[in-house]
Amino acid sequence: MTHGPLMLDLQGSVLTAEEREKLLHPAAGGVILFARNYQDPRQLAELVQAIHALRRPPLLVAVDQEGGRVQRFREGFSELPPAALLGELYRKEPRLALDAAYHLGWLMAAELRAVGVDFSFAPVLDLRDDRSRVIGDRAFSPDPLVVGKLAFAWCRGARDAGMASVGKHFPGHGGVAEDSHQELPRDCRPFETLWNHDLLPFRHLVENNIEGIMPAHVIYEQCDPQPAGYSAFWLKEVLRGRLGFQGVVFSDDLAMAAAEVAGSPGERARAALDAGCDMILLCNRPAAAEAVLDSLQHFEDPVRQVRMARMHGRGAPTHDQLREDPRWPRAMELLGLLQARTEEDAGLELEP
Question: CA 349, CA 252: separation in Å to the nearest integer?
């Protein structure tokens, strides 16, 4: 079987018979895991192994493991700081911050690879802006050059641990106040402003071969009437054409309120794929996911298959091997330093 275009979620910590049947559907291509799917590292490793064993090539298994507010697996994993702490450190000690970004990217990826997870939807390439509460401290910095440098170091660490990266939310979610989980944001800035500001981190990471990109459920009114995830202008003309991106385009969750503008779940799926997404996510809507699977029964795209192959994780160290790696003590040292800065630095207001 090949990778289908739909990434699904699961309800609990073990696969049910119904979920196995869905994941064997030819339109299924991967699984995104959440906190509800996690009990401890051993259980998680068994769950991922069961998913991977269902078919060949194995389904992709992903998670949101950014750090800070967005970290699905916590107990048994290192508590990663919000990206904004690295940006604040960069303002004072740039070399140390880049070293920390590399080692924390490595740590995040190495711990996930130890339980078989293929990749995380990280790093956030949006700019930190007080207007956006949903992004907030998930972003490294308000400075696009700093975001690009720290994100590149993070991705390099993840790649050295055997993991691909997915930068989000193209072409930038930081400049809007609305939360696309709840409503449809609109950004009224012209293309040139976005190109020379919000897009700079994406441009830098694409030039350095980032493996995946996730577009925003945001309408950029002066550029295209459709949200970026449904926009051929943003995905084909700008991302593929002007930037030359060769990796995988993942939609953001099509169950989000901002995604409803395209119609029914099946219509959203088709709109995202037609616009240029390679794999679409539909979470927390089991009945809708089943309908989308059926609507994509005969979907085929050989080019997408080639791109998807880059997202499989490489290597699977044991926890003992991780702790014997010379990068482990340095990662722990830097993690401790950043945790101490969280308490000491009154100048950084962290999100709840």
Answer: 27
Looking at the annotation, which residues are catalytic?
Answer: 181, 252
In-domain check, residue 292: no
What pTM was estimated for this model as a whole? 0.95
Residue 78 CB contacts under 8 Å (≥ 6 apart), including other chains: 107, 108, 111, 331, 332, 335
Strand order in the sheet with 119-120: 119-120, 60-63, 28-33, 6-8, 279-281, 248-253, 212-215, 166-170
Where does a domain end: 36, 63, 90? 63
Distance from C-alpha of 276 to C-alpha of 102, rounded to nearest angstrom: 31
Q: What are the angstrom distances between the C-alpha of 43 and each of 92, 116, 279?
A: 41, 11, 27
Taking only the tens place, the pLDDT of each residue in 235-256 is 999 999 999 999 999 999 999 9
Residue 295 belongs to a domain? no
Q: CA–CA separation, 309 vs 57, rounded Å?
A: 9
Q: Please list the residues that pair with 65 across neighbouring strands.
A: 71
With a cut of 50, say whether residue 109 has pLDDT above it: yes
CB within 8 Å of 64: residues ≥ 6 apart: 32, 70, 71, 72, 120, 121, 122
